[in-house]
Specification:
The protein has helices spanning 31-35, 45-49, 53-62, 67-89, 105-108, 124-136, 157-161, 185-196, 216-231, 242-249, 262-269; strands spanning 11-12, 15-19, 94-98, 117-122, 145-149, 172-176, 201-208, 256-260, 282-289. It is α/β, with parallel strands linked by helices and 292 residues long.
């Protein structure tokens, strides 16, 4: 298997012991599996990874400590793609995947017949690696998928986007998963500020709360995971208080905000489980600035 570029070998802040930017594959062994349905299913995950389905299932069964990660990764993708489906219903025809990694939505694109075009944004080295994976898996790039090379820490987002066919005057949807915690706060808000300049735009991203939001019993584990990630060269750089984040998003014009904390995620997607009492943890959030 091709070596993963160091910039993409990230660990998820929900569970800091698994690469974050692998494609979102169907959760196995979770509560949904026992009910006969999946939280999220990605038929291209196994081919693009270059692994066998048996090997993946074996990894899942042998590493139960990664259950929280698997569930959260599945949920955030399900939430994002459901949100995009609703956006397509109201007429959105361009979607941008920021920090795409091995995300396969642009390859699967169930809305292509409705005219949805997808632009993947990522570092040039990561996109080259992904192209290698696509070639080895014999997966072709659909006509409705384009690539834009952007370094979030050093380049303005639209420098690369417009060159890939993005139309600033049209409504747009942005999917930004597994990236925000690894960016500086300034880089996060610079990106959101750029996006908010569009007339009709929606963004789904995920974020983590700061260590002090966790109860003492969980804080030590959170800090230990943060240290492990930093040792891998990909430290978590930004954390957000949910209430403060809302207050900072509103001035950018994002008047429609849906923020799911761990408790709300448990209720919506794992209904038969007892939801956590303390809600500190990873969030997935949808914000929209509608046309005025």
């Amino acid at each position: 298997m091709a070596e993963v570029p160091a910039s993409r070998a990230r660990s998820n802040y929900a569970e800091a012991s698994e690469p974050d930017r692998r494609p979102r594959r169907q959760v196995a062994g979770g509560p949904s599996a026992s009910r006969g349905w999946a939280i999220f299913s990605d038929p291209l995950a196994v081919p693009i990874l270059g692994e066998s389905a048996d090997a993946i299932c074996r990894e899942v069964s042998e590493r139960p400590e990664l259950r929280a990660l698997r569930l959260f990764v599945a949920v955030r993708s399900r939430f994002a793609e459901d949100s995009l489906a609703r956006a397509v219903e109201r007429g959105v025809r361009q979607a941008v995947i920021l920090g795409a990694g091995l995300d396969t939505f642009g390859l699967r694109n169930p809305h292509a017949d409705n005219g949805l075009r997808v632009i993947e944004v990522d570092h040039p080295a990561t996109q080259a690696w992904k192209r290698e994976r696509l070639d080895k898996a014999k997966l072709s790039v659909p006509e409705a998928l384009s690539f834009a090379s952007v370094d979030f820490e050093r380049q303005a987002l639209f420098d690369g986007l417009c060159g890939a066919g993005f139309k600033r005057e049209l409504p747009a949807f942005f999917m930004w998963l597994g990236v925000v915690p690894y960016l500086s706060r300034d880089a996060v808000f610079a990106t959101l500020y750029s996006i908010s300049a569009l007339a009709d735009v929606e963004v789904v991203f995920d974020y983590a709360e700061p260590a002090e939001a966790y109860p003492a019993a969980r804080r030590a584990g959170f800090e230990a995971m943060a240290a492990r990630v930093a040792a891998l060269g990909e430290p978590w750089l930004s954390f957000f208080d949910p209430a403060k984040l809302r207050s900072e998003l509103a001035p950018l014009g994002f008047s429609e905000i849906e923020d799911l904390d761990p408790r709300e995620i448990a209720i919506r997607y794992f209904g038969e489980l007892v939801p956590p009492v303390n809600t500190a943890g990873p969030h997935v959030i949808r914000v929209r600035k509608p046309a005025s």
